[in-house]
Amino acid sequence: MARDSVLTRVATGAAVGGAIGGAVGAVYGTYDAIRYKVPGALKIRHIGQTTLGSAAVFSLFLAAGSLIRSH
Predict the structure, then answer these.
(1) Which residues contact 46 (CB under 8 A, 6 or more apart)?
(2) Were 54 and a residue from 21, 40, 70, 71 both cysteine, which residue would form a disulfide, CB within 3.0 to 4.6 Å?
(3) Does residue 71 surpass a pLDDT of 90?
(4) pLDDT tens digits along 8-51
(5) Distance between CA 57 and CA 12 in Å, rounded?
(6) Cα Rg of the chain, angstroms
(7) Alpha-carbon dihedral of residues 40, 41, 46, 51, nearest 10 degrees?
(8) CA pair distance 6, 34, nearest whole angstrom
(9) Is the pLDDT of residue 67 over 70?
(10) What is the pLDDT of residue 4?
(11) Residue 1's pLDDT is what?
């Protein structure tokens, strides 16, 4: 059985991290926007920024964890 390459494992970790981080960021961003009563169209911007920021950070950490575990 062929083993996955390190690059494939890191890319998979980053993709899974981005998906999970995006989902958590969207939920938290929505909660945060409602909690602080963000007005009108700024809610969309706030939720989007929270979603992308959370996805990027979680993706980075999961990719790094996958890199460490693949060695």
Answers:
(1) 29, 32, 33, 38
(2) 21
(3) no
(4) 999 999 999 999 999 999 999 999 999 999 999 999 999 999 99
(5) 15
(6) 16
(7) 120
(8) 42
(9) yes
(10) 76
(11) 39
Q: Which amino acid is at 3?
A: R
Q: Which amino acid is at 13?
A: G
Give the list of residues 6+ apart from residue 15 with CB closer than 8 angstroms, or none. Answer: 59
Confirm if 3 and 69 have CB atoms less than 8 A apart: no
CB 59 within 8 A of CB 17: yes
Tokens of 29: 């961003």
Residue spans of the domains in the chain: they are: 7-70
Structure-token pair, residue 19: 């998906």
Tokens 């929505």 correspond to what residue? 30
Check if the beta carbon of residue 49 is closer than 8 Å to that of residue 32: no
